[in-house]
């Protein structure tokens, strides 16, 4: 391999060839229970009496024979492993959903979890009888589950009604109804009768039920309807919906277009799907490089074509301001497939059900498109307690069809918290959510555009936005194609135009590296993002301003290795980090890794939305182990090569040698993220660790697959490991390939390989 630093060094692939099986023993203890079993039992019996009285006050037209109650856990038992499964099984409670429970205690806001349980009077009576049973006849697991409970009650009206401002009087809302299985139709019928009694035209309702999940109902209602329906027992929540279809029309400034369109001699085989307001196919910069596919039944409008044309132009060319005046653009390396889903036919369809139905129809049919861009969605911050149909739909399509959705986070970042939070469907856990950056007027450094919405994301992907691309602002606008007049550019700003930059790069990664899949592209893009603070809620994992060539490039002493594989729930995999033993490294070594997975989702459990995850543990030195004794708190670290005598002495004293080497904790996330279990159960994690060479010897990661609620779906994962030794005088790239022969540079197609001549 050439030693010239100017040579292009492709990213290294086939990391999966290094993966080894491994076994590991897991330890963990329960937190202290807040009450004895007797205290907890008596407390619950009192609460059950209140539940019975409350149910008696709910008329039969507002409930089913099987009713829904809430079981709220003590704050110490928030982790997923503390779900009271034994209680649910023995009491025959059907756990149909969960969400976060926020409450105040001693003027302090606290967080825990509540479960929605479906049962009937017979089941409730049987549960009361179990509680009256002699304690000696009840299992310890059941008693401990009882001790975890803080409260059993019905959901209150103010917990059902979510996200309404004091000024709200009328508008479109989305009702979310609990899953009722074979009784769903009967439940919906009762719900519609209640709405009719409140004056709602039920013929105009839009209803969508997902198998095994909740039912979504969209309706145009007045304030009195919300208050009148909130005690309908199968109702989980209701929240307002509002759509500003093309919010990025932030500027109508135009500037003369001094660029010449491409000659259209060749067209790319790499496709990007764009769901938006349609495009002007006759625009000289789009002609030959785009195709307007079938659309929804509404008529296109001028603002929609303007927005869609601008978005498509960004996917093809990026910011037009980057090109020299009077230059001719080259044929773009991606091709745009446009699908018009805006405006919807019904102006009151603020939940975009027509658009979602269309997307659910198109995506499974188009096997030639792996990446889709969405630069629109309902206005308003996401709510932790509820997941919109739009978000769940995209996550499900990503899982079922192995697609990558790139979504703009929204433009309300200048509003006061929490109204500045990201907007649906950018809270997806199986896709990329993109914010916008611009340039600081004084220093010209990159910074979040003030309008770009911020995180946190929801449970399952708490870091949002995932990354930021250039979206411009009033001082540094992004230059766009102008559908009104191709002789002029449109100068504007918005996350709508940051998202297609990322979507195009994702598609190009897949097109130029056929061995990659959308999950690898997602991991690579996040791994390439740069945040001076590592990660935060404003720009997520950072700014993405590199070209695809840069993303696919290694340097002599900064090397990226890709692992792509799958594993079963509860499975373990050892991923060796290829740090060469023969390299004479004497300076600090920086190791980082990005892990991305695809997870099936469950929109009935907002606090347990992802059904699978991967837990990662870093082991820096494969010869350093730990000696421990159950009766002594302090453990001893030993080297199994040089400390054999010491090890034997301590084993004689009753110590045991750990089954795996000593692990090390990577750098911590910010405080608010650290409080949320260091992103456990998230579909993306990114970690960093700097160490001295003496502390590293055959380092490796152990990945532990986690499946929730008995999930047995095999999970795909992609890992990008970066080894960075800035002051190394040798060639780390060559050293790795020479010592780890199963690794190989990824074969990258050039432009000529992906472009075909237009006859």
TrEMBL record:
PROSITE patterns: SUBTILASE, SUBTILASE_SER
Superkingdom as given in the UniProt entry: Bacteria
Keyword Protease: yes
GO molecular function, one term: serine-type endopeptidase activity
Domain Peptidase S8/S53: 269-542
InterPro entries hit by this protein: Peptidase_S8/S53_dom, Peptidase_S8/S53_dom_sf, Peptidase_S8_Ser-AS, Peptidase_S8_subtilisin-like, Peptidase_S8_subtilisin-rel, Y4bN_pept_dom
Keyword list, A-Z: Hydrolase, Protease, Serine protease
Keyword Transport: no
Full protein name: S8 family peptidase
PANTHER family: CEREVISIN-RELATED, PEPTIDASE S8
Gene3D superfamilies documented for this protein: Peptidase S8/S53 domain
Taxonomic classification: Bacteria, Bacillati, Bacillota, Bacilli, Bacillales
Family, similarity comment: Belongs to the peptidase S8 family.
An annotated GO BP: proteolysis
Active site annotation, chain numbering: 276, 307, 496
